[in-house]
Each structure stands twice: as structure tokens, then as C-alpha cells.
Amino acid sequence: MIMGPSGCGKTTLLSVISTLLDPDSGTCVVLGRDLARMTPLERARFRCATVGFVFQRFNLLPGVSILDNVTVPLLIGGHSRNHAESRAVKILDELGLRDRTSASPNELSGGQQQRVAIARALVHNPKLIVCDEPTSALDQTTGQMVMETLHAQARQTDRAVIVVTHDARIMNYADRIVRMEDGAIISCNDAVELEMPS
Questions:
Q1: Which residue in 30, 91, 177, 193 has the fewest CB atoms around it within 10 Å?
Q2: Contacts of residue 109, Cβ cutoff 8 Å, sequence gap at least 6
Q3: Does 196 map to a domain?
Q4: Could you give the number of structural domains in the chain?
Q5: What is the CATH number of the domain that holds 63?
Q6: What share of the chain is helix, strand, coil (3-state, %, to 5)?
Q7: SS3 of residue 129 by DSSP
Q8: pTM for the model
């Protein structure tokens, strides 16, 4: 979990780690790959195959169904539509949205839209899941449900989840807390073992 005041560089750091932005200097190694040594095409392929994104504003495609929104990463990755839809239905079912596959994003609540965004991030089994303020627009109950889903992902073998947040309510879900100020990491500590929210 990356925490710090607004404007301190949290989202920029997340964007560099996920290959959306190039660093101005220094080295960024992600899952054993030095991003600076990769061509733009290699970075795009790495991002497509390896990274799942949960954006603060959901970034769902408004004109298409929830099912189609979730299939996007698989279709971009070259999977068949049948495989993409089968996998999307499975992950939507796991997130309690099986009955909403034909709905459009504007027909869903904020919490449901965030679960769709998580389904889209998880559908291609990425090794790295990056989340920018995943609970900022959610009530506490829905926020906890979202974090429990992400926490379960982080517990899988060969999987990592990075969450940028201001939300102190979800600190209990972190294994490690990175604090930033003025564009720099000022501390990186294992999280204190706390009882998980009930």
C-alpha cells in the first residue's frame, strides 16, 4: 500500500511501475524486467500480459455491456471471444455480478462498477495488479468487500497487488506500507499485524 498526501507522486510511481509512464532517471525493475531496456512494443506486451489495472474512476466503456467491458484485456491479448466471454462470466460470477452481464455501466451502482473494474483487472490472471484509490468512491462496507477481493488475490502464489490510497480504513489489508512525500519514498515498512475488519 502506497500512502501520502495529494500530489506527492503516488500515482506517478504507480504509472511508472505499470509501464504507463517512463521514468526520467533511475532504474525500475518489475518482476525481474528492467523497464528501461524494453522497447515500447515490449512494454505494451508486458503490460497486456502481466498487469491488471483498477482505476480510481473505473474507466469502464460506457457504450458496451459489463461482459464486453471485462473481456477487453483478453481480446487485446489475442484470446478468442468464446474464451474471453467464458472467463469474464466466471470472474463476474465470483464477484456477485453474474446477473448483470448484459447491463451497461450507467445501470450499476458505484460499488458494482468498481467490482466490474476489478473483474476486468483480474480476468487475464495478471501477476501484478495496480490499484489507484480503489475505495475512494465507495462506502465502508463496499470498500471492505473490494479490499477483501484484492487481498485474496495478493495471497495467491506469484501475485502482487499495489494499492495507492488516502483511505486509512483499509490499512489493515496491507502487508507493507510505503509512505511518500514530495516525490520521494520516506519509509517502507511491514504493516503491523492488525485484526481484519469484520
A1: 193
A2: none
A3: no
A4: 1
A5: 3.40.50.300
A6: 45, 15, 40
A7: strand
A8: 0.86
pLDDT value at position 135?
85
Residue in 122, 185, 114 with CA at minimum distance from that of residue 154: 122
Q: What is the pLDDT of residue 191?
A: 67
Higher pLDDT, 61 or 111: 61
Domain that holds residue 70: 2-190
| pLDDT at residue 192, rounded to an integer | 55
Question: Which DSSP symbol is given to 77?
Answer: T
Cβ–Cβ < 8 Å for 5, 167: no
- Look at residue 146 and tell me if it is in a domain: yes
- Rounded CA-CA distance 97/111 in Å is 11
Residue 159 has pLDDT above 80, yes or no: yes
C-alpha cell at 193: 499485524
The per-residue pLDDT for 86 is 96
Task: Kindly state whether residue 151 falls inside one of the protein's structural domains.
Answer: yes
Helix (H) or strand (E) holding 81: helix 81-94
Strand 176-181 relative to strand 29-30: parallel, antiparallel, unpaired? Answer: unpaired
Cell of 17: 511501475
75/134 Cα distance (integer angstroms): 24
Residue 197 lies in a domain: no
30 HSE (CA, 13 A, CB side): 29
